[in-house]
Amino acid sequence: MLLEKLKSVKxxxxxxxxLAFSNISARVQLCVQKLEGVQDKLFQGSxxxxxxxxxxxxxxxxxxxxxAYKNKMKISILEDEQGNSISEPVEVERVVIEFYKDLFKPxxxxxxxxxxxxxxxxxxxxx
Length: 127
Prior knowledge:
Oligomer: single chain
Largest sheet: 3 strands, antiparallel
Helix content: 55-70%
Strand content: under 5%
Shape: elongated
Structural class: mainly alpha
Number of helices: 4
Radius of gyration: 22 Å
C-alpha cells in the first residue's frame, strides 16, 4: 500500500520536474539569445508591432524561466485537507514534516480494529 502511494507520487513529481524544471539553463540561454536578436532589430530601427509583441513575449518567458530556476525544488504553498492554503515557510515545513512522519509511522492493527491505515493527509503542491 505504502509502496504504491510512493510510486504514484514519484510519477507525478517526475512529470512536474520535466515540465517545469528540465534543462532550464539551456532554455534561459536560448531565450536570452532570441531576446537579444529582437532587441537588435529594435535598435536598428525595425520598430513594428510584431517585433514589440515578440520582445514582450520573450521578456515574459525569460522572467518565468528565471523564476522557475530560482524556485526550483522549493514548495511555497500547500493545501490542507480542508482546502486552506498554507504559505508561511515555517508552517509549510511543519506540515510537510508531519505528513511524512505520519506516512512512515509504523501501523499496528489489532483484530477487530476499524482504523484505516491508508487514511493520510494529502499534500497538493502549487507552482
